[in-house]
Amino acid sequence: MGYFQSFLRQFRARLILIIFINNALIVADWYVVDQVVKLTGVWALVAIIAVPLLAVGIIPWISTNLLVQPTKFLWQAILHIAPHNTENVAAPKLDQLRLGRELVTNLINQVYQLASVVQAVEQSDSKRAQVLNPDFAVNALPLPLLVLDKEEKIVLVNELAAKYLGKSIADLTGQNFFTALDLSFRSDDTLSNWLKASKGKVVTADHKWERVRIGLPGQGDSLQFDLAGHYNRDNPLGYETLLILFDHTEVYSQDDQAMSFVALSVHELRTPLTLLRGYIEVFDDELGPTLNPEMKEFMRKMNASAQQLASFVDNILNVAKIEDNQLTLQLHEEDWKQLVETVVRDLNLRAGVRGITIKTDIAPNLPTVGVDRYSIYEVLANLLDNAIKYSKGTSEIYVTTMVNKDGLVETSVKDFGLGIDASILPHIFVKFYRNHRNRAQIGGTGLGLYLCRAIVDAHGGDISVNSKVNEGSTFTFTLLPYAKIADARKTGNNPAVVRNAHGWIKNHSLYRD
Amino acid sequence: MDNQGTPTAAPKRILCIEDEHFISELYTRALTKAGYLVDVQLDGQKGMAAAQTDVYDIILLDLMIPNITGIEVLRTLRDPRQTPKMHAKIVITTNLEQREDIRADIEKQADGYLVKAEITPKELVEFLSHLDF
């Protein structure tokens, strides 16, 4: 309660007391007159009739209009300046005063003066209250900030956050955070996973994410920022999770431009490749029959090399996309046997020119798999390409696929070549990692296996290797049967499950019921 | 126009909108050998005007072409207000890497989407022979 209101209450109580005393004095006064009349006796009868008359009619009239009026006016003035003047009391008309006009005017002036002092005090008081108000602190922060409650509902948004996110505070407040904002993270280290891990297990936790986006990657105007989160289970105000955004849209979008540089370079590389492959085909078709076997073999090798270059260009592009969180997978139901056979057929030329035969052993009745056709093609093509490169004089490569004991579709590519030293095995899926022993003999960039693992991971599968030096290597990866992926997909409006190479592309929203 | 399969079937006409001369040359060669009649346009503006005459059965459309981009051409050809008569199948032939969402959008409007570096001229012929008329 404000100062003024308490002042008013006290003032009112005193005023009532004054009026009461005032009236009591008047009654006492008339009692004295009554006694005098009694003594005279003659006036007794007159007094008996007159006193009640006076008491009922005249005295109230006098006290109301003459004696009480000053206090009434005073009261009216106070009501008038009251901040919660609900009865619309007007300022007293002082010229109507019959008694003690000067005194009352003075008093009322003092009341008005006092009121202005009270108002000033009250204002400074509310200012102090505002300093303590969380809203004030939140809005004073020069960074976008959001606060979530236990249900992950947005309970507090500062003005900067609303402005940054292009929404109004009212639009955001009360919304489920993950419904209101479509965040994507670079890995499955997402906000929702962190919250899930923190809730019920710890009292407080802090975490930081880099390169978080609003919306999907590739959207030109998407915001990019680092995100800091503070979790506090027992916050008395229910402010369980505090999130602060550090905008880096400008810096990170420069990386997007680096991405478009890669895309453009790939376009420039592909044009001569298209021609090379076109001309090789024309020569092969039309000159082939006239060529001697050696020339014919050269033609085949040229063709295989052009093909290899084309897939390498695709590798560069895909690695760039993974780095930039732009490799989006659309998981559809596919016939795995047919896909494997397509890849093997396409790689046969490359194997053939090195005297290698690719043999397949595909288990009957394989379930359909949930894969991104283009990306999974590259996984198998890269594994086969490696097997061809590292076969070292051996003449067979086996591609085996079956359902494993966990019900996953397991595919292996086995060669009988160089093999990989045990000390190197743990590193082979790392980007740019190359076995120094082979570096001089066998070409490569160290992108292929990195790409394979990223794509297989994104499919929800696993990739592993088993190898012995001089005996060969077996690379094995698993894929989920489509039925399992379809189970996981609860939202009906998305024909395919969308993932990126770092995990789920959409934070929380994909599996939200 | 829908006389596919009749003994008197006229050869199918293809418009190749492609600014890389060597590529269009290779494609023309392979497609002509396969029995198609091929016209080439090197830029978007002229390519679109030619396409709107509606004499072609198949349009091969590159996306990176001068004057008007292939995406713009595709949109115009698929818009009945701007191109009221259009029976041709449109196949995108490009080496440009698209963002997935843009690619999906283009694929929706076109009858095929091919990355040129990934196919040979003969494979293009093979692909076109499977187009459903």
How would you describe this structure to a colleague?
- By secondary structure, chain A is an alpha+beta fold.
- Chain A has four domains: 3-132, no CATH class; 137-247, Beta-Lactamase (2-Layer Sandwich); 250-323; 327-513, Histidine kinase-like ATPase, C-terminal domain (Heat Shock Protein 90, 2-Layer Sandwich), CATH 3.30.565.10.
- In chain A, 51% of the residues lie in helices and 17% in strands.
- Chain A is built from 15 helices and 15 strands.
- A six-stranded antiparallel β-sheet of chain A has the order 2-1-6-5-4-3. In chain A, strands 8-10-11-13-12 form a five-stranded mixed β-sheet. In chain A, strands 9-7-14-15 form a four-stranded antiparallel β-sheet.
- The model of chain A is unreliable at 491-495 and 501-513 (pLDDT under 50).
- Chain B has a single domain (13-125), classed as Rossmann fold (3-Layer(aba) Sandwich).
- Chain B has a five-stranded parallel β-sheet with strand order 2-1-3-4-5, with helices on both faces.
- In chain B, strand 1 (13-17), helix 1 (21-33) and strand 2 form a beta-alpha-beta unit.
- In chain B, helix 2 packs parallel to helix 3 (70-78).
- Chain B is globular.
- The chains are: A alpha+beta (513), B alpha/beta (133).
Summarize the structure.
The complex is a heterodimer of chains A (513) and B (133). In chain A, helix 11 runs parallel beside helix 12. Chain A is of the alpha+beta class and 513 residues long.
* CATH third-tier fold name of the largest domain in chain A: Heat Shock Protein 90
Kindly identify the CATH topology of chain B: Rossmann fold
Figure out the total of helices of chain B: 5
The helix/strand series of chain B, from N terminus to C terminus, equals EHEHEHEHEH
The appropriate CATH architecture of the largest domain in chain A is 2-Layer Sandwich
CATH architecture of chain B, by name, is 3-Layer(aba) Sandwich
Helix content of chain B: 25-40%
Task: Compute the number of strand runs of chain B.
Answer: 5
- Measured by DSSP, the beta-strand proportion of chain A falls in 15-25%
Rg on CA atoms of chain A, Å: 44 Å
The chain-level structural class of chain B is: alpha/beta
- Tell me the Rg of chain B in angstroms: 14 Å
CATH homologous superfamily of chain B - what is it? Response regulator
User: Kindly, what is the distance between the CA atoms of the first and last residues of chain A, rounded to a whole number of angstroms?
Assistant: 47 Å
Q: If you average the pLDDT of chain A, what whole number results?
A: 78
